[in-house]
Amino acid sequence: MRLWSVHPRYLDRQGLTACWREALLAQAVLAGRTRGYTRHPQLERFRGHGRPMQAVGTYLEGLAEQAHARGYRFDVARIVETETAAEPMIVTDGQLRLEWAHLMTKLGTRTPDLAERWAPVRVPQPHPSFVVVPGPVAPWERAVPDLRS
Q: What keywords sit in the KW lines (predicted)?
């Protein structure tokens, strides 16, 4: 499960659709509708929010907006909490940098033209449901260790 902190505009088709599916799974876990993935570390960011279902709903809305802009049809009726979270989630600049390096590696393999397009970006924008604060990689992160620098 990868729930990207970077803005969905940077994701390729595969990344955007996978993130949508995984965020729907996260929503199901948080709602108690599934027994799998209940201990997945990426869920900590939603559980740490005062209103986890609202936070994941806001996250899904951000993905759906990007999908709509690309002409995709994500079923927004699947979002349980559609009221935008009053409090944004927090992402550290260290986490954002790690995810950016991870995404650029994936794009370089999967979608080289998109990797080339985004190569000049040094500091990516976060997903609209996050605000960036200074700090290290999140303690829940399980990405490849060589990306932690």
A: Lyase
DSSP states of 78-92: G-S--SPPSSPEEEE
Whether the model clears a pTM of 0.90, i.e. scores above it, the answer is: yes
| pLDDT category of residue 112 using cuts at 50, 70 and 90 | very high
Reported as a single tens digit per residue, the pLDDT across 44-63 is: 999 999 999 999 999 999 99
Q: Name 3's Cβ contacts closer than 8 Å, sequence gap at least 6.
A: 19, 22, 23, 26, 42, 45, 59
Q: Is the pLDDT assigned to residue 147 strictly greater than 60?
A: no
Write a three-state SS string for the chain.
CCCCCECHHHCCHHHHHHHHHHHHHHHHHHCCCCCCCCCCHHHHHHHCCCCHHHHHHHHHHHHHHHHHHCCCCCCHHHCCCCCCCCCCEEEEHHHHHHHHHHHHHHHHHHCHHHHHHHCCCCCCCECCCEEEECCCCCCCCCCCHHHCC
